[in-house]
């Protein structure tokens, strides 16, 4: 009887294990979908952030270039202001001449009126009338001279106004020319650098400048060039000498070397601040290029310390981006 009961009992454990396995597979499937979706969304967000950083750098470079071109146009602006002042003085002189003419015309009318009255009085007044007639004739001649002078003044004023318009056009042309003279050569130079430096992770082009990470050239807290940095500067020196032969002599250009550090303060026996360190690094690069035959008149060095970061925040990644050497091809 007991054996019969055991045979009729239902064993549900295998079914339970199968159901649990299926449930686990479904959960793993949805988990995998979630992980993949999260990965692709994160990748897209990183791409957008990179585009924002690039556009910010481009905007900053355009602002710098605009400031440079404003300084170059100051001379033409001063000429324009001087011409405007001369034109205004001419207008005042014309107004004064018109007032003199009006006064003489009033005097002439008064004399003519007096002459008519004298003629009516008696023959005794003929002498006086003759005198008045002569004086009237003299004033008429003077009035003609003043009218001619007025015509000349108006002509000069028109010429000065034309000069002002021409100076304005020349100023606009000069601004446009200053902004675009080096564009073709800068593009060619950047293209050459891309070829010889290739795809280095520590090199990038931002707007009108190309940027190297400081670690390529210097050790932390040092302004002594490393061997690997010297190799890259050898390639840069070769490209600069070739560029100097191509650019016309009338175009005054320089390669500006800018040193930048992160925001971690430095205070050592040799460097009192980040500013000193960034300046010495820029000078070290310039001196090396001079030693490789790049003309001194084509080079300039500047140190900015931590004051112009390209990445915000205090993360290791942001600080690494801010530790950099920038090269900018610009007008001197």
Largest sheet: 5 strands, mixed
CATH H-level superfamily title of the largest domain: OmpA-like domain
Q: If strands are numbered along the chain, what order do they take across the biggest sheet?
A: 1-2-5-3-4
What fraction of residues sit in β-strands?
Answer: 5-15%
Number of helices: 8
CATH topology of the largest domain: 60s Ribosomal Protein L30, Chain: A
Low-confidence stretches: none
Helix content: 55-70%
Mean pLDDT: 80
Number of strands: 5
Q: How large, in whole angstroms, is the Cα Rg? A: 42 Å
| Structural domain tally | 2
Assembly type of the chains comes to single chain
Q: What is the class of the largest domain in the CATH system? A: Alpha Beta
CATH architecture of the largest domain: 2-Layer Sandwich
**Straight-line N-to-C gap:** 111 Å
Q: What is the string of SSEs from the N terminus onward?
A: HHHHHEEHEHEHE
Basic shape? elongated
Structural class by helix and strand composition: alpha+beta
Describe this protein with a few key phrases:
single chain; about 325 residues; alpha+beta; 60s Ribosomal Protein L30, Chain: A; 2 domains; five-stranded mixed sheet; about 70% helix
Task: Report on this structure.
The chain has about 325 residues and is α+β, with helices and mostly antiparallel strands. About 70% of the residues lie in helices and about 10% in strands. It folds into two domains: about 75-180; about 185-330, OmpA-like domain (60s Ribosomal Protein L30, Chain: A). The protein has a five-stranded mixed sheet with strand order 1-2-5-3-4. The chain starts with a helix and ends with a strand. About 15% of the residues are buried. The mean pLDDT is about 80.
């Amino acid at each position: 009887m007991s054996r019969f009961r055991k045979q009729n009992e239902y064993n549900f454990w295998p079914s339970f294990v199968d159901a649990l396995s299926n449930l686990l597979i479904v959960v793993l499937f949805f988990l995998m979908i979630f992980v993949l979706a999260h990965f692709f969304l994160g990748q897209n967000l990183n791409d957008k952030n990179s585009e924002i950083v690039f556009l910010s750098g481009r905007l900053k470079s355009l602002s710098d270039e605009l400031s440079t071109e404003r300084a170059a146009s100051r001379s033409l602006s001063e000429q324009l202001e001087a011409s405007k002042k001369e034109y205004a003085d001419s207008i005042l002189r014309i107004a004064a001449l018109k007032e003199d003419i009006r006064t003489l015309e009033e005097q002439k009318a008064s004399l003519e009126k007096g002459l008519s009255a004298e003629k009516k009085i008696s023959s005794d007044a003929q002498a006086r009338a003759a005198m008045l007639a002569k004086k009237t004739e003299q004033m008429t001649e003077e009035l003609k001279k003043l009218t001619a002078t007025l015509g000349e003044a108006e002509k000069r004023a028109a010429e000065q106004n034309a000069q002002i318009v021409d100076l304005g056009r020349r100023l606009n042309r000069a601004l446009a020319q200053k902004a675009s003279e080096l564009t073709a050569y800068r593009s060619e130079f950047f293209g050459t650098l891309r070829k010889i430096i290739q795809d280095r992770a520590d090199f990038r082009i931002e707007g009108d400048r190309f940027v190297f990470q400081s670690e390529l050239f210097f050790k932390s807290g040092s302004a002594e060039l490393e061997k690997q940095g010297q190799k890259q500067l050898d390639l840069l020196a070769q490209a600069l000498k070739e560029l100097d032969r191509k650019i016309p002599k009338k175009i005054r250009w320089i390669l500006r070397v800018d040193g930048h550090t992160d925001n971690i303060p430095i205070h050592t026996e040799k460097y009192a601040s980040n500013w000193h360190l960034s300046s010495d690094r820029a000078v070290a690069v310039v001196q090396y290029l001079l030693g490789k035959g790049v003309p001194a008149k084509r080079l300039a060095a500047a140190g900015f310390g931590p004051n112009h970061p390209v990445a915000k925040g205090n993360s290791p990644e942001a600080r690494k981006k801010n530790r950099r050497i920038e090269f900018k091809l610009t007008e001197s």
